[in-house]
Amino acid sequence: MTSSQKQAIHVIGGGLAGSEAAWQIAQRGVPVVLHEMRPGQQTDAHHTGDFAELVCSNSLRSDDHEKNAVGLLHEEMRRLGSLIIRSADANQVPAGGALAVDRDGFAVAITKSLTEHPLIKVEREEVGRPPDDWNNVIVATGPLTSQALADTIRGLTDEASLAFFDAIAPIVHRDSIDMSKAWFQSRYDKAGPGGSGADYINCPMDRTQYEAFVAALIAGEKTTFKDWEASTPYFDGCLPIEIMAERGAETLRHGPMKPFGLTNPHNPQKSYAVVQLRQDNKLGTLFNMVGFQTKLKHGEQTRIFRTIPGLENAEFARLGGLHRNTFLNSPKLLDGTLRLKAMPRLRFAGQITGCEGYVESAATGLMTGRFASAEWLGEEPNVPPATTAHGALIAYITGDHVEMVDSGRASYQPMNINFGLLPPITDFSTHGADGKKLRGPDKANVKKMALCARALNDLDRWLSAQAHPVAAE
Length: 473
Ligand SMILES: Cc1cc2nc3c(=O)[nH]c(=O)nc-3n(C[C@H](O)[C@H](O)[C@H](O)COP(=O)(O)OP(=O)(O)OC[C@H]3O[C@@H](n4cnc5c(N)ncnc54)[C@H](O)[C@@H]3O)c2cc1C
Hints:
Layout: E1 9-12, H1 16-27, E2 32-35, E3 59-62, H2 69-79, H3 83-90, E4 92-93, E5 98-101, H4 103-116, E6 120-123, E7 137-139, H5 147-156, E8 162-168, E9 171-173, E10 183-184, E11 200-205, H6 207-219, H7 241-246, E12 273-279, E13 286-289, H8 298-305, E14 316-318, E15 321-328, H9 330-333, E16 339-340, E17 343-348, H10 358-376, H11 389-400, E18 405-406, E19 409-410, H12 440-464
Parallel strand pairs: 1-2, 1-7, 2-6, 7-17
Antiparallel strand pairs: 3-5, 4-5, 8-15, 9-13, 9-14, 10-11, 11-12, 12-13, 16-17, 18-19
Helix pairs in contact: 1-10, 2-10, 2-12, 3-4
The chain binds flavin-adenine dinucleotide.
C-alpha cells in the first residue's frame, strides 16, 4: 500500500494532549483526523469549542529549565517542536518565573494552527467506540472522558482498571526524610512477596504529638468539591485522612497510623502512633504516605505533615487530593509506547494515562504523536532516555510505579513531573566556588541543575539519532 492510500491516524479528543499529538503527526507528513465533541457536547469543565482549552489556571507553571522539572519539560518540548509550548510562548502574560498565558489567545492560536494544517481534518463529534477499521488511534479524551467512551474503555480493560476518581496520598522525596528519626521496617518484619522485611519508612509519634496531629487534621482548611464532583464516592479503605480523624481520636491509631509490629531503633519507648511511607517508584527515590489521601488544602498539607517526626524538612513530589478524574491503571494496561496491551491499535495520551497537569498531558500527547506516526511510517517507535523528563514520565506511566493493591484498588495515582522520577545523579560538584562543601538548598540547586543539564544533553543526543529529528515547521 502506498502512503497516499494508507488510512489516516485518528486522534480522539482535542485537549492539551490530543492537539499536540495531532500536530506532531501532521508535522511528520502523516494525515490525521482529530475528533472533538465540543462545542456540540461540552464536558463539565470546558466552555468553548477551542482546542486545548485551559479549564482552570492559565499557568503552565515554572519555565525555569535549569532548576525545575516542569521547566525542563517545557524546554524539551520546545526542542521537540511542540505546538502547545510555541503557542504558550507567543501568548505569554507576565507571571514571574512561570509560563502563564492569555487563555483565549493561546487556545485560538492552537485551533488556528490545527484547522489550517493541510494534513489535519477536524471532525466535531463524540466517538463512543473507535470503529474496528481505525487501525492507528490515539485516545486523548482527558479526565472528563464522555460516558460512552469510558464505558467502551472499561469493557476493554476491567472494572478496577479504569478509575473515575483519584484518591491521592502525598509523595515525599526519599532524600528529604530525616532517617535519624525515621527507620526502615515492615510491620512484624514481614518480607512478603518481593519485600525484604524492611520496606517501609516509619515515622514515630508519642501521645502528645499524635493528639496535636489529629486536632490539626480536623481543624485544617479543606478544599471543596465542585458541583459536578459532589457525588465523589469515598471508597472503603480509601477515606480522606481528615474524615478518619473526625470519626474519633483513636481511629487513625487503629488504621493507617497503627504502631503495632514496629520497633523504633532510635528510642526504646514504644511509639504511640506511626506514619508509614511506602516506596512508590522502582528507582526508590519517592515514597508515598500510606493511607494519607486527603482534601486538605495544599498549604495545610505541607504545614501539618511537616509536624510528623522525620518529615520536618520533607520535600513533596506530589500533594494529596481527591477529584473526579478518569484514568487507567496504565502500568498494568499499557505497553512501553502507551498502547493498550489488550488492543494495540489504541494508544492513550494525556491525563487519562495517569499523568497530571496541562504540561504533562501535552508532553504525553507529543510522545504518542511521535510513536503513532513512526509506526505509520514503518519505523520503530522510540522512547527518549529515562534521564530526560519525557522519558522519565513515560517510564513512570508504563511501569516504574511500584504497584500495591490496597482494599482491592490499584495504587497507581496521577503524578506530575518531578525530579524524583529521574534516575539519581551523583556526578555533580559538591563544593562551591569558595571551596566549601555545599549543604541544604545550595546543594539541592546544584543537583537540580546537573539533572536538567544531563536531561537536555541526553535529549539532544537522542534527537539527533532519530530518523526525523525535529518536527519541521
Ligand atoms: C476541573 C479541572 C481543573 C484542572 N485544573 C488544572 C490546572 O489548573 N492546571 C493543570 O496543570 N491541570 C489542571 N487540570 C488537570 C489536567 O491537566 C487538565 O484536565 C488537562 O486539560 C488534561 O489534558 P487532556 O488533553 O488529557 O484532557 P482535556 O484537555 O480535558 O482534553 C480532552 C478533550 O477530549 C474531548 N472528549 C472527551 N470525550 C470525548 C469523546 N468521546 N469524543 C470526542 N471528544 C471527547 C473533550 O471535550 C476535551 O476537549 C484540571 C482538571 C480538571 C478536570
